[in-house]
Amino acid sequence: MRTPILLAWAAVSSATALAQGYPAKPVHLVVPFAAGGAVDTVARALGQKLGESWRQPVLVDNRPGAGGNIAADAVAKAQPDGYTLLITTQGFAISPGLYKKLPFDATRDFAPVTQLTSSFLVLVCGPQLQAQSIRELIALAKSRPGAVNYGSTGVGAPPHLLGELLKSTAGVDMLHVPYKGDAPLTQALLAGEVQVAFMPLAGVLPHIKSGRLRALGVSGKARSATMPDVPTFAEAGLPFEFTGWLGIFAPAGVPRELAAQMQRDIAKAIAAPDLLDRWPAWGYEPVGNSPGEFAAKVASDTAMYARVIRDAGIALQD
């Protein structure tokens, strides 16, 4: 009969061997949004970089819908062997406070691997809207209550929560119109279906540069180096800010040694010179922190978003 010490030693040895031989086959990177959006863009760039160092393909698997919960559920139920990973936004920390019931437990069913990035959102509008600044948008919304609409990537998603925060802070009434991801929301803005929206910079920067969309403000603490002429909300007289994140999660039970190795490889990939050159244009700053540090960040944000949802009176979703 094996003693507990021998069993523990065998488990550690098995986990170490798995980490040393990883990856031995393609890795699936599950994205909870449609192809062409900001998260998909980052996932494909990261996958290419990891594929070069791992010498195995990193396959991007787009599974949009339900505020990211379809993708998260697929990863929660996958084998904890490092071959199925979730790349997602801070929406992961929003879901527990937004939904009446989830098909997974966001705390118990996942192992945080690393926070890829921190980010801000940019408030954009189409050229049809008669507003050149945040102050002009607020004045327009106050003069026509309910006539100005804003788009989001779904109920409870960061663009929705920021829209509600803008409404409450500025004392305006605007209509919320949800879409299923960054790409369809961008198309709706360009087509004039919605008038304003908080968006990741990556997906809308080309349209801002071409003049098809207008940037009114950024949600971060400081102006963007990519758009230094666009003010923060604090500069426009609205005392709020928002910084988001992208992160990598594995199914719970992934060996600690393997999670640590993945974190080191990912941190190295996001700091590669060619990716460092691209992060500012995408509106992100690379982070690459440890699994423990990221787990603490997720726990803190989960509690904070639950308070925001409750205070805004957003109905819990089915």
Notes on the protein architecture:
This protein is of the alpha/beta class and 318 residues long. The chain folds into two domains: 25-118 and 243-312, D-Maltodextrin-Binding Protein, domain 2; 121-218, Periplasmic binding protein-like II (D-Maltodextrin-Binding Protein, domain 2, 3-Layer(aba) Sandwich), CATH 3.40.190.10. Helix content is 43%, strand content 19%. The strands form two sheets. It has a six-stranded mixed β-sheet, sandwiched between helices. A five-stranded mixed β-sheet has the order 7-6-8-5-9. Strand 1 (27-31), helix 2 (38-54) and strand 2 form a beta-alpha-beta unit. Helix 1 (4-20) packs parallel to helix 9 (256-270), helix 2 (38-54) crosses helix 9 and helix 4 (91-98) packs across helix 12 (291-312).
Draw up the topology in text.
Blueprint: H1 4-20, E1 27-31, H2 38-54, E2 58-62, H3 69-76, E3 84-89, H4 91-98, E4 110-119, E5 121-125, H5 134-143, E6 149-152, H6 158-170, E7 175-178, H7 182-191, E8 196-200, H8 201-210, E9 214-218, E10 244-251, H9 256-270, H10 273-276, H11 279-282, E11 284-286, H12 291-312
Parallel strand pairs: 1-2, 1-3, 6-7, 6-8
Antiparallel strand pairs: 3-10, 4-10, 4-11, 5-8, 5-9
Helix pairs in contact: 1-9, 2-9, 4-12
